[in-house]
Structures are given as structure tokens and as C-alpha cells.
Amino acid sequence: MPKKYVQIDPRDNIIVALTDLKIGTKAIINNEQIILQEEVKGKHKFALIDLQIGDEIYMYGALVGKTTKPIRKGESITIENIVHASANYQFGMEKSRWSPPDVTAWI
Q1: Cβ(58)–Cβ(47) below 8 Å
Q2: In a designed cystine with 51, which of 2, 15, 71, 74 is the match (CB 3.0 to 4.6 A)?
């Protein structure tokens, strides 16, 4: 049976619907049952936990928004109940190291 929803990263507090899901659908995530409170279209998201106004929304392990209204576990995440947000970023804050691969075999 194909999976109908997915948590992309363990830090995510919203879940991605892979197909259209009907109200009352039971989702099991992290051994916890969530009953959808409304229909959720494929590629849209629903809340993994109860969220209050101002709570941060995480998807793909990154901060993507903040709630503007309370959202109950199993309710849809929409542009009406969240606003875009992101973590602060400054160029050069994180150092990365990259070593080029050995390509001498192709020269």
C-alpha cells in the first residue's frame, strides 16, 4: 500500500500529504495517531501537534513560518494560518570545506 503522507525530517512539526486525504483519515506518525480535522490536498501540509499563535513551523528540518492562528493537530497548514519566516542567516557564518575529487584518471 503506497504511503499517503510523510514527515521529511524528524524536527518537522507539519506533515506532507502525498495524496488527497479525507477528513477523519487516521495517520500514524512516530507511533502517534493523528486524525485529520479537515480535508488535505496532495502536496499540502497538516499539523503534527497543536500549535499556538506565534509558534514556529518546521519543514525539511528548517524554519519556514510562524502561526497566525491556533492550529489543532490534524488541521491544514494554509496561507490563512501561517506567515513566512526563516532563520537568520549571515554570509560566512558557517565554514565549509570542499576538496576537489581526483580526476587524473580522466586527464
Answers
A1: no
A2: 71
pTM, entire model = 0.78
Rounded to a whole number of angstroms, the distance between the first and last alpha carbons of the chain is 49
- Mode of pairing for the β-strands spanning 82-84 and 26-29: unpaired
How do the pLDDT tens digits run along the chain, 107 residues long?
678 999 999 999 999 999 999 999 999 999 999 999 999 999 999 999 999 999 999 998 999 999 999 999 999 999 999 999 986 666 666 666 777 778 787 77
At 69, list the grid cell: 492562528
Is residue 106 helix, strand or coil?
A: helix
Q: How many C-beta atoms lie closer than 10 Å to residue 34's C-beta?
A: 19
Distance, in Å, from the CA atom of 75 to the CA atom of 52, rounded to the nearest integer, reads: 13
